[in-house]
Specification:
two-stranded antiparallel ribbon; alpha/beta; Rossmann fold; single chain; 36% helix
Length: 222
Amino acid sequence: MHTNPPEERFDGESGEKKFAARNADADLTIILVHGRGQSPDDMAALADRLALTGVRYLFPRADSNTWYPDKFMAPIASNEPFLSAAIAHYEKLVSGLLAEGVPAERIIVGGFSQGACLSAEYLARHPRRFGGAVLWTGGLIGPRGTIWPLHSVLRGMPAFISTAENDPWVPAERVRETYDWLIQSGAAPAMKIYDERDHGVLDEEIVAVREMIEGVRKRQAA
């Protein structure tokens, strides 16, 4: 049971504290959102595996380590008011960066599992031409048959999205739907669906995202 009101359940400072030494010369800001039952430390471990320099990280934290209570393909109402509060918190983090003078093109949004689902849904509800999106084992939120509005503002935005056919939490069907939604919105996603793997992030997925991010940097420097 969640003891705090939805709007008080989140903390966006964890990543700032852990990676403060890397912020001074950062040319990119990456928001990585943890999955259900995880914490910012899990996202920090993924950031360490990315082995990127010059990056400022934000690792928001959810109270009780979950952003919303039900499955991500459950009826939307079963995840309210927590889902809307989590999306609003996400927007608060991004708006804060924009207010600091960080352009959206130098912000990468994403996460793992529930955090990836929240990030995909955030893109659908608050679309901007971000530098990129990292959707490690996640997809858009809503029951089967949900139709998400297309957003041409995402045109050209790189993204990486993944899952496995045997994943118990994030069906490949929804990842393919999310990939198609990104394509139809004009984004430039890459998708990897494994036949079988554990619910986690493989080294191959780390490499794919690292290469995507370095590609973002090269295009910005051109």
